[in-house]
From TrEMBL:
<dbReference type="InterPro" id="IPR000572">
    <property type="entry name" value="OxRdtase_Mopterin-bd_dom"/>
</dbReference>
<dbReference type="InterPro" id="IPR036374">
    <property type="entry name" value="OxRdtase_Mopterin-bd_sf"/>
</dbReference>
<dbReference type="Pfam" id="PF00174">
    <property type="entry name" value="Oxidored_molyb"/>
</dbReference>
<protein>
    <submittedName>
        <fullName>Molybdopterin-binding protein</fullName>
    </submittedName>
</protein>
<feature type="domain" description="Oxidoreductase molybdopterin-binding">
    <location>
        <begin position="86"/>
        <end position="222"/>
    </location>
</feature>
Length: 247
């Protein structure tokens, strides 16, 4: 079966060209489209929806873990939050929920955490293994009283792509997966800015571009059509990446 991970291994020389170069190849985009449907059907229809991505030991952790995407958001609001060590940061959970939440970083860090050592696979062709710490996303959605109308979870971020805030989205199967966490620490230390401080998403059965960084709002929606470009994420809207990036 053709999978995203198979494409990354078999096509490493091509993938090392980077996201922008890949986007210029119509053939590569068509290949990703065809593999997306196969991968999604395999994960949704064949695999147990709670099947875990492989977890590793500390001995397997990468000595260097590259950052991907934005390394430093260039907005005044982020600069202010960083200067004050995120003391006034709030994570909002709203949309189709009964009890919207607004959590400080201290409140988020006080929640029970899951620690997992997993592999990050980037569409550019590199991988790294790191340890992530944070609460399960499902805990926040349950606390907020997720509506039965909700079908997708949208992550609104503090970095920008051009004039638009960066965003990503996943469906409820990935949102309630036991390895889907809101990480506030990495490799035993507080999350650094290049890796998404103060909070980033880890959805371990998806490629790296789905792992939204600098999250400030989590929105439950029924449809993605009215969210920015309507394709479910910044790279999906702007660079023709596929919404489902399962591996």
């Amino acid at each position: 079966m053709l999978t995203r991970r198979g494409l990354m291994v078999g096509g490493g020389a091509l993938l090392l060209g980077g996201c922008d170069r890949l986007n210029q190849s119509a053939g590569f985009r068509e290949l990703l489209r065809s593999s997306e449907g196969l991968t999604m059907r395999a994960q949704r229809l064949i695999m147990n929806r709670n099947a875990l991505a492989r977890e590793f030991s500390e001995a397997d952790m990468s000595p260097v873990f590259r950052s991907n995407g934005t390394a430093m958001p260039d907005t005044p609001d982020y600069a202010r939050l960083l200067a004050e060590r995120f003391e006034s940061y709030r994570l909002r959970v709203d949309g189709l929920v009964a009890r919207p939440l607004s959590l400080s970083l201290g409140q988020l860090r006080s929640l029970p955490i899951r620690t997992q050592i997993t592999r990050h696979d980037c569409v550019e062709g590199w991988s790294a293994i790191g340890k992530w710490h944070g609460p399960r996303l499902s805990r926040l959605l349950e606390a907020a009283g997720l509506s039965s109308r909700a079908k997708y979870i949208v992550f609104h971020c503090m970095d920008r792509y051009g004039s638009e805030p960066y965003y990503e989205s996943i469906d409820l199967i990935d949102a309630f997966h036991p390895q889907t966490i809101l990480a506030w620490a990495m490799n035993g230390a507080l999350l650094g800015v290049p890796h998404g401080a103060p909070v980033r998403l880890r959805v371990e059965r998806q490629l790296g571009y789905k792992q939204a960084k600098y999250i400030e709002r989590i929105e439950a929606v029924e449809s993605l059509a009215s969210v920015q470009g309507g394709k479910g994420g910044t790279w999906e809207d702007r660079a023709d990446y596929e919404w489902y990036a399962g591996i």
